[in-house]
Amino acid sequence: MTETSQRPRPLRVLAAMSGGVDSAVAAARAAEAGHDVTGVHLALSANPQSFRTGARGCCTIEDSRDARRAADVIGIPFYVWDLADRFREDVVEDFVAEYEAGRTPNPCLRCNEKIKFAALLDKALALGFDAVCTGHYAQVIVNEDGTRALHRASDMAKDQSYVLGVLDERQLAHALFPLGDTVTTKDEIRAEAERRGLAVAKKPDSHDICFIADGDTQGFLAGRLGKAEGDIVDESGTVVGSHEGAYGFTIGQRKGLRIGTPAADGKPRYVLDISPVNNTVTVGPAASLDVSALTAVRPRWCGTAPTGPGTYTAQLRAHGGETEVTAELVDGTLEVTFSEPVRGVAPGQAIVLYDDTRVVGSATIATTVRAATAMA
Amino acid sequence: MAYLDHAATTPMLPEAVEAMTAHLSITGNASSLHASGRKARRTVEESRETLAEALGARPSEVVFTSGGTEADNLAVKGLYWSRRDADPARTRVLASPVEHHAVLDAVHWLGEHEGATVEYLPVDSYGRVHPEVLREAIARNPDDVALATVMWANNEIGTVLPVRELADVAQEFGVPLHADAVQAFGQVPVDFAASGLAAMTVSGHKIGGPYGIGALLLGREYTPVPVLHGGGQERHVRSGTLDVPAIASFAVAGRLAAEQREWFAHEIGALRDNLVTAVRTAVPDAILGGDPVNRLPANAHFTFPGCEGDSLLLLLDAQGIECSTGSACTAGVAQPSHVLLATGTDPDLARGTLRFSLGHTSTEADVEAVAKAIAPAVERARAAGLT
User: Fold this and answer.
1) pLDDT > 60? residue A11
2) Distance (Å, rounded) from C-alpha B55 to C-alpha A120?
3) Given A37, B50, B299, B319, which is the most exposed site by the fewest CB atoms within 10 A?
């Protein structure tokens, strides 16, 4: 006779604590749920910066201290693990290389894939932990057959399943997201932190890329890649301006183009294409941004890869809306067609496919097909 | 729980707690002339005499500080400044590379900001500075040496340095030698007069006294330039109102440390030996760090090849065994120990260290806990590997 208990088995949980309010509350909830929780702050910068007022991200002494303080209040052991080398290789260098190649990477997603649920998870498992816990807003639901699926957070407004879309089933089997089933405002999470005596309750949210302390991505890239003057051309190939490095642009960008010659129709122009090979940025009207299809590489599936074409909802960037697509895996490349043209699709970003709230898989956008081209 | 981190801090002795609490409710600034002040001063001076006796020094040679770090800074910076003031040619500072950061960083600072030429004396694989090494370094130009500093016993690997022999060499050239004796006091014989040292650091909380109190033993002929300027207390070398309760308590702990030193070395040393045997039996390839003979009786330092010391710490902590990797942290991130690197240890190997330090409350049960836990922990930590 088998007996199943309603109460989940207590796990040995390693809680990744950034020093922010979400991961602190997540760790506290995991501990309260009866798990044996140990906190760990990841040192991701080789040279931890000194105190910055309102510092945010993963790289400051202040964040490390805030995380330690929260762990002490929760009453769990706390360690700092130095994953700076791995982070530099897998996230920072990848970020620079992607921009250099004219793409727009998402480093948070890469960090989840390569650091939190790879380097950190592997070390945790080896040390005898059962799971890694983070403050992400997403849900892991156990299917009837025991497999796991990643679902959007109960509160769609805060859902972060997009940046977790790269996780496979094995990674999900060892992931704990205690905030995922919370339908609540950020203020309520802060109130919960306050109630739990966590001093990070009033700490500002993170927005920036954690390894670019001052938020100046262009300055960071210029420092890494140097200046490389080139042309800005229109769709006919006519030179309409110049730039100091093609990597400084993102598809769909309108501001900061500094084009002297106005467009023939007088309408605003947007970045349509970035070509690192000839260091050229192509601009054109908004209508030319419309994309009808794309291909995406490095697909990762949560569970078995689908066979044949399927209909999904897709998300194309963090905090982006949902869009209807059909997608099919052809020779390892995901071919996606939109039911309605979408605007501002940047190669390098991830496309995450959903079946209702369930994450089916993700891939990195490689090429796009312009709606205008397709119609022509 | 097995507390095996006494080198970080050791529980206060009941007698020291009693002395401290008794004085907390007594008013009196030891610099005041009235009755309350005189009473406080009497406590301070009696404590000074007690400590002097425990350390083989004259009472006037005991300069109270806020602890080991301040005493080290006063010795290193103060003696450098005063010696250089007397002769501007004296800008060379000789230091062992295995010093505690309180000395190492002070010396480094002199090099960065005060024009000092810092020379690190080579050590052997046990972390010892040999007298002939010091002789060679000084003899190269005895006139430009401001001071030399070596630790009496190393806080990480437990090696005891030949302080007496080193002081003989320094004396021969008229160079003041400072020794950090924070770990040595209470564990090996420490006699300031017999040592031939110019200055020596001791600390309260490492010997069962309170935090925040220490002393620099300072030969009467030395007047280091103060680090703290103010009311001129402590021979005008260390200003600041004296912490009477802490001083009284420190003195009690110091007296007991000296009185019980032989018992400590014998009893705790035997316990430590058991721990070393247990660890080596459980993990045959564990490497005992430091001098196997001339070492602190309470120190057991190991390197576990293929392990991250941090991982071991986490695994043992989870079982209530509290120890240390022995090395310093930067923003909470363990760095490879400068002590091990100085002894020529491979940097990867240097990441897998654990320091067990015993003390007056250690028991056979503590050793048994380690004996039971260490092999599985090492196996796990090896699986986790080096990141």
Assistant:
1) yes
2) 50
3) B319
Query: Residue B356 and residue B288: Cα distance in Å, rounded?
Result: 11
Same domain membership, residue A343 and residue A298: yes
Q: Which helix (H) or strand (E) holds A367?
A: strand A358-370
H or E element that contains A123: helix A120-126
Distance, first Cα to last Cα, chain B: 29
What is the domain range of residue A359? Answer: 290-375
The pLDDT tens digits for B349-385 are: 999 999 999 999 999 999 999 999 999 999 999 999 8
In a domain, A313, yes or no: yes
Q: Where, residue-wise, is CATH 3.40.640.10 in chain B?
A: 14-259
Looking at the partner chain, which of A64, A77, A85 has a beta carbon nearest the beta carbon of B332? Answer: A64
Q: Does A68 touch chain B (CB under 8 A)?
A: yes
In a domain, A1, yes or no: no
Summarize the confidence of residues B9-36 as an average pLDDT: 97
Q: Which of B310, B380, B384 sits opposite A79 (nearest CB)?
A: B310
The CATH code of the domain that includes A307 is 2.40.30.10
> In chain A, how many domains are there?
3
Residue B82: strand, helix, or coil: helix
Domain co-membership, A24 together with A128: yes
Q: Is the domain of A316 the same as that of A185?
A: no
A97 lies in the same domain as A242:
no
Residues of chain A positioned with their CB less than 8 A from the CB of B334: 82
User: Which of A202, A237, A253 is where one domain is finished?
Assistant: A202
**Topology given in CATH for the domain delimited by B14-259:** Aspartate Aminotransferase; domain 2 (3.40.640)
State whether A82 and B315 contact (CB < 8 Å).
no
Beta-carbon count within 10 A of A1 CB: 2
Name the residue in chain A with its Cα closest to that of B378: A127
Catalytic residue among B86, B329, B383, B386: B329
Under an 8 A CB cutoff, do A82 and B333 touch?
yes
Nearest to B387 among A41, A77, A83 (CB): A83
Is the interface score ipTM higher than 0.90?
no
Q: Check if A41 contacts B (Cβ < 8 Å).
A: yes
Residues A254 and A303 reside in one and the same domain = no
Distance from the Cα of B187 to chain A's closest Cα (Å) equals 31
Q: Which residue has the higher pLDDT, A45 or B210?
A: B210
Q: Among A288, A317, A338, identify where a domain stops.
A: A288
- Residues B131-184 pLDDT 10s: 999 999 999 999 999 999 999 999 999 999 999 999 999 999 999 999 999 999
Q: Do B334 and A82 touch (CB under 8 A)?
A: yes
- Tell me what percent of the residues of chain A surpass a pLDDT of 70: 92
pLDDT in tens, A25-68: 999 999 999 999 999 999 887 555 433 333 344 456 788 899 99
Dump pLDDT digits (tens) for B32-50.
999 999 999 999 999 999 9
Structure tokens at A239: 């030179």
Give me the CATH number covering residue A278. Answer: 2.30.30
- Contacts for B24-29: CB closer than 8 Å, 24+ residues apart: B24/B245, B26/B244, B26/B245, B28/B244, B29/B241, B29/B242
**pLDDT value at A166 more than 80:** yes
Q: Cα distance from B365 to chain A (closest Cα, Å)?
A: 23
Average pLDDT, integer, range B245-269: 98
What's the whole-number average pLDDT of chain B? 96
Q: What are the structure tokens assigned to A212, written together? A: 């670019």
Q: Does A118 touch chain B (CB under 8 A)?
A: no
Within 13 Å of residue A246, how many CA atoms lie on the same side as its CB?
Answer: 22
